[in-house]
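[RESIDUES AND BACKBONE]
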Amino acid sequence: MMNTERLDIRMRDISGSRFEEVKAESMQLDNVSLAHSGIHNANMSGMRLDDVNAAGTTITNANLSGTRIQDANLSHATIDHVHLFGTEFRRVVLPQLGDGNYSADGSYKPVSFEDCDLSGAQFSGCDLSGVDIRDCRIGGLRINGIPVEELLQTAADERFRRNVEVSPPDANWPARYREEAEKLRRVLGPELAAIHHIGSTSIPGMHAKPIIDVLVEVRDIEAVDAYNDQMRRLGYQPKGENGIPLRRYFNKGGARRTHHVHVFQAGSEHVIRHLAFRDYLTAHPDDAKRYADLKIELARQFPSDMHAYIEGKDALAKELEAKALDWHAAAGEQAESAAD
């Protein structure tokens, strides 16, 4: 049976002590040296350490949940197999001039976390410069509100510039669209108003970058942001408006892009523009060939410069878009006349 004893320890040097099979819930230590002590198999939840020297102390198999530590020296301490949920660390600093373990050249052994579950932890106002994170799960990890997975993907995009690849028509493109459209339907549910295959892969016989462009019409564009986490689980990066007001844009595949999703409010002028361009080129193979030939030539000239490729086809794309909108409007007028 565990013995019960009340201790009042203040301004004591109990360095090198050993605590084992100890129940010390809500223990308070004030102005005490525990340097190089050992604490094993202990329940110390709710503990308060104030002005404590615990340098070189080893703590194993302990419950430290809800612990509060302030003005303490934990340098070279080892904490192994402990519960820390609800624990707060504030104003953790390197030794200052005058402290016993101060190093004038700033050479200190770095703090390390290994095989730790820090999910849900928060770091605010901390100096994390030089931190090295390896082989860790980072799903949902955010820095200043930005998901780290997105930052890493953006860095990869910058490091490996997207190559310009224009492929011959692929009979699998429609099936790839249908497969992705079904996934998006399940994510957006009742918010979805309509979904369309757009871009060059939607035009029969068109050479294209092998990227599936999906146009999504929703009932409320402002509601789309609530689906960002679900889109991430499908492999997409949410990019917000990305230069076009009242749009939500997502891409998948990073530097080896596979899908683009363009989301607009149902009935948006951008919806009309995209669908008119697709339908016009489908109905006018000569203009479609002009567009395809230009893309093939630009890909040959700029095989690793996506920006130059996009700039190079901009003028013809705008010309064809203007023709497509006129054609679309005329077709609408003819339909109205026929209805009358």
In short: Helices lie at 148-159, 173-188, 228-233, 269-283, 285-301, 306-339. The longest strand covers residues 192-198.
